[in-house]
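ARCHIVE CARD
CATEGORY: sequence design from structure
SOURCE FIELD: tokenized fold
FIELD CONTENT:
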């Protein structure tokens, strides 16, 4: 998402410090071709930020941390990977420690949460605290490439009850969240977490179907060092607004950002940031039994966007009845209710430019399962393709569905899916799948032999494979409630391309 000049400079400096001069994977997550004279090397340091999981007194949270094997990392010391609690700040930027004294910051004297000891085996940690803090974590050495942390929370009752899942994310400077709401039935909080030792300054900009929703209270929000700040989105505007989009920009520093949405009737879940705005988008992993699918898109640029709307089914691309295209005005949002578009078959939404449109968009889906008072919602943001590898850290003995979509007709995708060892024991298992171009393949993923505990899934496209996007649905029913959550699987950015450097003594004579 690093689209500002300062962000690009920061990214270059950070990579240079680790590996010399390096280039990350393409922004859209597509597989990249290593330049002549360059090599792809594993990163040596990763960061993950997890927001506070819940304020419910009847919530239970599991953290699952995992680094895949076979990253080609350094020989020698394995490295370290763990998360530390951050302090709770305030929306007015005053921040501070829980007692209001001292300097805000991560609790460096606390024991790390879910520390890894080796690659290839997940580690879990649990909490039932209503005041569980945000977590700030780093991994280095051989544990850094592909380090993934999943935060899964089960809330038994109250507003936002259900299953809330989130892949903890790396800090950044620019985020789009289509699908937020300040409606009367919703309580949406944006959680901003600063991993660094200096304050971050953030601007929040809400967009609706008529354009920006002006609010001075969303400007110049200070996030203290190594602290987290929650902001209730309804405080940013006087008029209740549904089908909105939130733009988060760190004008100083960098933050992790995730939206926690709670609905009085539909439960709750996390809405992660969508993929960077682009002329098209892929939203994978709509469950086969979805009873309602709702699309929200925003055009952040200066031009209107026209999108062709298609559903990638198990048998190919189709156009949903009555929804051939979607027009999104510049600086505004547009939405469409696709209802039970999957008709009992798993699918993925594919948005492509129409009428010669080149305007970028960001998009997300709200997906509902169940009926009546037994409904549960989850979100699927647009996501980049799996480039080299992607990981879903928290999978149980039952309840996981892996969705793979090859969005381009005629370009089949071939991927290897590996189930890791279990957190309490088990032997890894791998299986290869082929996804026909223009279709979605939803499978019950492989499970490790002799599984004890939870396990991780890694998805790795074969050389020469067509582009593939992925999502994992985790369903953990609560009585008659079809509680579920969906995590998209973009590339884990565990490697960077490093040009080969050598001595050129002729420079001394020039």
């Amino acid at each position: 998402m690093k689209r500002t000049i300062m962000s690009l400079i920061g990214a270059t400096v950070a990579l240079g410090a680790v590996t010399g001069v390096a280039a990350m994977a393409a922004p859209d997550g597509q597989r990249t071709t290593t330049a002549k004279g360059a090599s792809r090397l594993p990163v040596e340091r990763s960061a993950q930020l997890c927001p506070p999981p819940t304020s419910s007194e009847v919530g239970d949270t599991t953290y699952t941390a995992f680094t895949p094997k076979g990253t080609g990392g350094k020989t020698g010391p394995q490295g370290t990977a763990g998360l530390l609690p951050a302090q709770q700040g305030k929306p007015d930027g005053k921040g501070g420690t829980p007692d209001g004294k001292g300097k805000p910051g991560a609790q460096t004297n606390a024991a790390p949460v879910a520390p890894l000891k080796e690659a290839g085996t997940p580690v879990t940690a649990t909490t039932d605290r209503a005041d569980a803090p945000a977590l700030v974590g780093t991994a280095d050495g051989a544990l850094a490439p592909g380090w993934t942390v999943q935060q899964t929370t089960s809330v038994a009752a109250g507003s936002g009850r259900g299953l809330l899942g989130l892949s903890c994310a790396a800090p950044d400077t620019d985020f789009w969240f289509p699908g937020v709401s300040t409606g009367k039935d919703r309580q949406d909080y944006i959680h901003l977490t600063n991993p660094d030792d200096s304050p971050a300054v953030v601007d929040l900009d809400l967009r609706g179907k008529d354009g920006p929703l002006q609010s001075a209270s969303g400007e110049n929000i200070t996030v203290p060092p190594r602290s987290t700040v929650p902001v209730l989105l309804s405080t940013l505007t006087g008029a209740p607004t549904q089908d909105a989009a939130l733009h988060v920009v760190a004008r100083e520093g960098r933050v992790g950002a995730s939206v926690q949405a709670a609905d009085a009737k539909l439960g709750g879940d996390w809405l992660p940031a969508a993929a960077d705005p682009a002329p098209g988008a892929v939203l994978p992993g709509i469950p086969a039994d979805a009873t309602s699918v709702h699309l929200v898109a925003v055009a952040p640029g200066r031009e209107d966007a026209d999108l062709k709307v298609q559903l990638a089914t198990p048998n190919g691309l189709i156009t949903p009845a009555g929804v051939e295209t979607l027009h999104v005005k510049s600086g505004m949002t547009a939405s469409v209710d696709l209802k039970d578009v999957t008709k009992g078959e798993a699918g993925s939404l594919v948005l492509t430019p129409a009428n010669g449109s080149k305007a970028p968009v960001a998009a997300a889906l709200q997906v509902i399962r169940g009926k009546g008072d037994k409904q549960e919602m989850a979100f699927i943001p647009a996501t980049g393709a799996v480039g080299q590898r992607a990981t879903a850290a928290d999978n149980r003995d039952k309840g996981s569905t892996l969705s793979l979509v090859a969005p381009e007709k005629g370009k089949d995708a071939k991927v290897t899916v590996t189930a890791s060892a279990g957190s309490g024991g088990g032997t890894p298992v791998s299986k290869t799948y082929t996804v026909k171009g223009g279709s979605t393949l939803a499978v019950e993923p492989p499970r490790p032999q002799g599984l004890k505990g939870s396990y991780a899934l890694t998805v790795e496209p074969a050389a020469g494979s067509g582009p593939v996007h992925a999502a994992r649905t985790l369903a953990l029913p609560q009585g008659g409630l079809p509680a579920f959550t969906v995590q998209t699987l973009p590339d884990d950015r565990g490697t960077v391309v490093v040009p080969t450097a050598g001595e050129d003594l002729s420079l001394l004579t020039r």
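CARD ANNOTATION: The first strand starts at residue 38 and ends at 42. Residues 304 and 330 are 5 Å apart (CA to CA).
SHELF: design records, drawer C
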